[in-house]
Amino acid sequence: MSQISEAEVLAFLNKIESGEVTLTSKHEPQAVYAGHVTYHASNGWQIVIFNDCNEWDYIDSILTNDGRELDFDEIVDSMPQVYGYEPTNTVAWSAYGIPGYLQHSEETWEGFQPSRR
Predict the structure, then answer these.
(1) Distance of alpha carbon 75 from alpha carbon 1, whole angstroms
(2) Tens of pLDDT along the chain (117 residues)?
(3) What's the whole-model pTM score?
(4) Is 106 helix (H, G, I), strand (E, B) or coil?
């Protein structure tokens, strides 16, 4: 079982929704039509979301700033509230940059931080 509690994950998600914790990604979420998007949170955590056909689908994994990890199987097996979590479309766009093309094709998500070489 994960060392991250469901309550901690739900509190983290609520902080993302409220804007207390912000996310950035080196990959433009709109460019990942179907696949994993890794986000770096302002609190030092990392969250990976599966973007399915440009829609927020599920949380794949979480890594805390102190090294604790939570994977999809643990979420499915022991965290029903986290497994059932889905942000509103407004939060999916403002916090995660998803959904993209259909609703925001002319905009770039503000959390997109391309790597500079």
Answers:
(1) 10
(2) 458 999 999 999 999 999 999 999 988 888 888 899 999 999 999 999 999 888 899 999 999 999 999 999 999 999 999 999 999 988 998 899 887 555 545 566 566 666 544
(3) 0.85
(4) coil
Domain limits of the chain? 6-101
- Helix 6-18 / helix 89-96 crossing angle, nearest 10 deg: 80
Q: How far apart are CA 59 and CA 47, in angstroms?
A: 7
Three state DSSP letters for 7-70:
HHHHHHHHHHHHCCCCEEECCCHHHCCEEEEEEEECCCCEEEEEEECCCEEEEEEEECCCCCEE
The token duo for 59 is 């949380």
- Output the CA–CA distances (angstroms, integers) from residue 30 to 67, 71, 87, 104, in the order listed: 29, 24, 17, 9
